[in-house]
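Ticket 4471: requesting a sanity check on a complex prediction with cytidine-5'-triphosphate. Repro inputs:
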Amino acid sequence: MDKRILLIISGGIAAYKALFLIRVLSKRGIATRVILTRGGAEFVTPLSAGALSGDTVYGDLWNLTDEAEMGHIELSRSADLVVVAPATADIMAKAAHGIANDLATTTLLATDKRVMFVPAMNVRMWEAPATQRNIETLRQDGSLIIGPDAGAMACGEFGEGRMSEPEDIADAIEHALAGHTTLDALRGPKPLLGKHALVTAGPTREAIDPVRYLSNHSSGKQGYAIAKNLQALGAKVTLVSGPVSIDAPLGVNLVKVETAQDMLSACQAALPADVFVSVAAVADWRPSVTADKKIKKGQSGLPPLILEENPDILKTLSNLKVGRPKLVVGFAAETNDVAAHAQAKRLKKGCDWIVANDVSGDVMGGDHNTMIVIDAKGAETWPRLTKMDAAQKLALKIAERL
Ligand code: CTP
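Returned structure tokens:
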């Protein structure tokens, strides 16, 4: 399992649902490590939480054995996301005020990861001004809040306060683990239903011989994030990707290719599309001859590396006389005079929008991006965002246009 959450189970009748959550997450390939508060342990046992998570269950800040095995600071950093489910009014009040007097609250204060609270309590406690104030503070601190749902409650009352269902919590966890800093796109409308989006991503590889190739540093993260966000808005997505080491986004039709020529053929085969988003860092050139055996060193001096130009996929699809996607979006990787070069590139390629990014910093391979979106009317500069949030903003803009 490549992702891990730290699950804090605090004391509420909904604690049993946290056990189901561990199972749902494990089926989705997400590992869970559990902290059980003293209150939580009144409702579920460390034994059941440990059996389901397959890991030590931590409970007491003052437990020397636990603390020697993994200190509370290390514990707070050992996961990709911290989830408090169920989150009682008490633990949220403490977290909102920075009170740290047991393992769970100390961990919440010490963590450098995003925290998700899944509240569960009586409706009056939920509606109390103090709870609402604390929730607002936690939100402003960057925490994610899931639920609560409305319905009949264990205490016999009816209203908002039920803990969200494990499948819904797992969806939100996956969404956050994918890099989203808000949950807005998760249950939003699906304006792209019935639309087909074609996206290219990653680098291409142009073989010199069976073991060597020309390529670049593209990680594919931005293109994959755009594909996922278009899909989240309801589009059917074909993602034509060069070799990358990230997982295929769920629900997206992934076509893997190596070379620029293969990428062009795969894109042509995927048409018609309503929108084409060309994010791939296509190699501009390829060796004009690929040796069929490994080139040996020093036999006749340096091997000649003669290059020829690769097809320009963006330009080809932008200039289709028949079957041109309604909206064609190119990307421009620039290191200087970003907006000016990108505007010139838009005209040269014939696309409708071009998204410029300054790749002089850590954009290639990094998790953040600052985009400038340029169309015939002008340029719009977006703030520095995670690639996932930038992708969501772009997908929404595409949906608006389509
Ligand atoms: N692109 C493409 N096919 C190519 C080269 C680029 O589809 N053979 C697309 C990219 O996916 C991107 C846009 O064209 O959407 C611009 O890519 P970029 O590398 O910035 O521009 P180049 O055309 O390669 O120009 P230059 O290297 O001179 O900046």
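Notes from triage: The chain has two domains: 3-187, 196-401. Leaving this open until the requester confirms.
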